Amino acid sequence: MVRGIQIASGDNVATLLSACARGDEILIVGQGAETRLPAREAIPEGHKIALRPIPEGGKVVKFSTSIGRALLPIEPGAWVHLHNLASEYDARSQTFDLESGAPTDTRYR
Questions:
Q1: pLDDT tens digits for 45-100?
Q2: Separate counts of helices (H) and strands (E) for the chain
Q3: What is the C-alpha to C-alpha distance for residues 21 and 53, in angstroms, rounded to an integer?
C-alpha cells in the first residue's frame, strides 16, 4: 500500500512516500488522524496529494504554513503540483516544466 505523510494536523496536503497509480488506496499517516483515500491520478513519489477539498484561490497548507494557492478547485486524492498550485515563494513557479521542474520562460542562445 502506498503511504503518505501529513506533517501537521492542519495541513490539507500530504507527501507521498512512493509513487502511486490512479485508483491506488493511499494510507495517510503522521500528525493527522490516520486515514485512507483513493488517488485520483498517478502521482510521483515525494509529491503532494490533497487530503480535503481546496477551493480555487484557497491556501495549500503544508508544515502548518501556506505554501501557495490553488489555481482551480482541487479534490481530495488529487495531485497538488505546478499545474494547480501557485507558489507563495517563487513568482516563476508557473513557468516550470511539470515533469522536470526546468524553467520554460528562459531562452538560452
A1: 999 999 999 999 999 999 999 999 999 999 999 999 988 999 877 665 565 665 66
A2: 0, 9
A3: 20
DSSP classification of residue 52: S
For the entire predicted model, the pTM comes to: 0.83
Secondary structure class of 90 (helix, strand, coil) = coil
CB–CB of 48/25 below 8 Å?
A: no
Provide the pairing of β-strand 2-6 with 25-30: parallel
CATH value of 2-95 in 2.30.130.110, 3.40.50.10860, 3.40.640.10, 3.40.630.10: 2.30.130.110
Tell me the C-alpha distance between 71 and 73, whole Å. 7
Cell of 44: 510521483
